[in-house]
């Protein structure tokens, strides 16, 4: 017998304020046509003044717990993946913990757009080694707070939001027929710092800073790295691309999603897409997309679901789950 981590509930939260491409075209030299053609993005949600990452995370977590049918007493671990915490410290996860009335332990994981995969992998390890039985894994971001709203190359690409899953230990027999997380793979390459970073921080500038990105270079690496890491989780489980029922990618650019699906011969209707409505919500994008596909009935018990992401650092990773 072996312990597997199973996703038993999903939830999400998007701020009420929707900003369209045309709205942005009034602020910077851009157009709906350019943004849609180059990225697939049509709109994004932006947090209200005073609405923080922990507020978004809390709302998504409540919905995931309700969906899973668990209460605060059942949760013994909370991990929040975020690059836009409420404060430098303490962790946003401890704020969420306090509002939910959860005991146990809580901390943040920082791997930018790959944060949810890093957090899911970490929670999976705590569950498998017995330190936690039921975990909340949340991706939550307010990227609107770190964008340079004068820079058309970046400000049109991102949005705010949060998604959460409840992960619970279940007994499996150790084979690839088990339900739950069957494989995780993580990577990072610190030498690519200058291609995607924030030009501020407590220790360097004592400011929050703004996001800076060499878009074309990031795009090129994303396509290669994502294909590589998907191949790894397939090899780990002995599965083939044709076994994948749902690809739930980090939502950075429709062209990256299309290229990844094409590489593996995955048809477009098996790729969960939210980038058109949410834009890039960094660590929140995978759990937001997952919650949508689970709640509208696309993802069914027994399905093979591959989650993958790539982001600043660089960091990248994938998880393969039998639903
Ligand atoms: O989540 C983390 C991972 N992030 C990513 O995966 C992002 C990956 N990168 C991308 O998605 C794409 O590279 C972008 C969407 C960021 C940019 O698309 P691109 O096709 O690589 O465009 P580009 O940067 O090569 O720019 C093409 C042209 C440039 O003009 P010139 O130099 O050809 O005259 C840009 O100045 O488009 C111009 N441009 C814009 N025009 C209108 C750049 N941004 C805009 C804009 N509106 N918002």
In short:
With about 325 residues, the chain is α/β, with parallel strands linked by helices. It has helices at about 20-25, 30-40, 55-70, 90-100, 115-130, 150-155, 215-235, 255-265, 275-280, 285-295; strands at about 1-15, 15-20, 45, 75-80, 105-110, 135-140, 160-170, 180-190, 195-200, 210-215, 245-250, 305-310, 315-320. It folds into two domains: about 1-170, 3-Layer(aba) Sandwich (Peroxisomal Thiolase, Chain A, domain 1), CATH 3.40.47; about 180-320, Peroxisomal Thiolase, Chain A, domain 1 (3-Layer(aba) Sandwich).
Helix content: 25-40%
State the CATH class of the largest domain. Answer: Alpha Beta
The portion of residues forming beta strands comes to 25-35%
From the alpha-carbon coordinates, what is the Rg to the nearest angstrom?
A: 18 Å
Whole-number tally of structural domains: 2
Distance between the termini: 19 Å
Q: H/E series, N to C? A: EEHHEHEHEHEHEEEEHEHHHEE
In CATH, the homologous superfamily of the largest domain goes by the name Thiolase/Chalcone synthase
Largest sheet: 5 strands, mixed
Question: Compounds present?
Answer: oxa(dethia)-CoA
Mean pLDDT: 98
- The unreliable regions are none
């Amino acid at each position: 017998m072996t312990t597997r981590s199973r996703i038993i509930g999903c939830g999400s939260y998007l701020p009420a304020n929707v900003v369209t491409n045309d709205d942005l075209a009034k602020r910077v030299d851009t157009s709906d046509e350019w943004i849609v053609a180059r990225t697939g993005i049509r709109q994004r949600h932006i947090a209200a003044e005073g609405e923080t990452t922990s507020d978004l995370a809390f709302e998504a977590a409540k919905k995931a717990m309700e969906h899973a049918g668990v209460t605060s007493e059942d949760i013994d671990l909370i991990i929040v993946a975020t690059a836009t915490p409420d404060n430098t410290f303490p962790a946003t996860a401890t704020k969420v913990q306090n509002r939910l009335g959860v005991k146990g332990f809580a901390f943040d994981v920082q791997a930018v757009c790959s944060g949810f995969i890093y957090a899911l992998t970490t929670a999976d390890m705590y569950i498998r080694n017995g330190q936690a039985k039921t975990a909340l894994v949340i991706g939550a971001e307010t990227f609107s707070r770190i964008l340079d709203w004068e820079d058309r190359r970046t400000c049109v690409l991102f949005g705010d939001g949060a998604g959460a899953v409840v992960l619970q230990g279940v007994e499996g027999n150790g084979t690839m027929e088990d339900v739950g997380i069957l494989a995780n793979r993580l990577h990072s390459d610190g030498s690519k710092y200058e291609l995607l970073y924030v030009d501020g921080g407590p220790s360097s500038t004592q400011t929050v800073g703004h996001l800076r990105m060499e878009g074309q270079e990031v795009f090129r690496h994303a396509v290669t790295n994502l294909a590589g890491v998907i191949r790894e989780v397939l090899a780990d489980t002995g599965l083939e691309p044709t076994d994948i029922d749902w690809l739930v990618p980090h939502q950075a650019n429709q062209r990256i999603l299309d290229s990844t699906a094409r590489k593996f011969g995955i048809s477009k209707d098996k790729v969960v897409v939210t980038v058109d409505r949410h834009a890039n919500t960094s660590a929140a994008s995978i759990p937001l997309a997952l919650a949508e596909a689970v709640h509208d009935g696309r993802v069914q018990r027994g399905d093979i679901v591959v989650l993958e992401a790539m982001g600043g650092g660089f960091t990248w990773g994938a998880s393969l789950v039998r639903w």
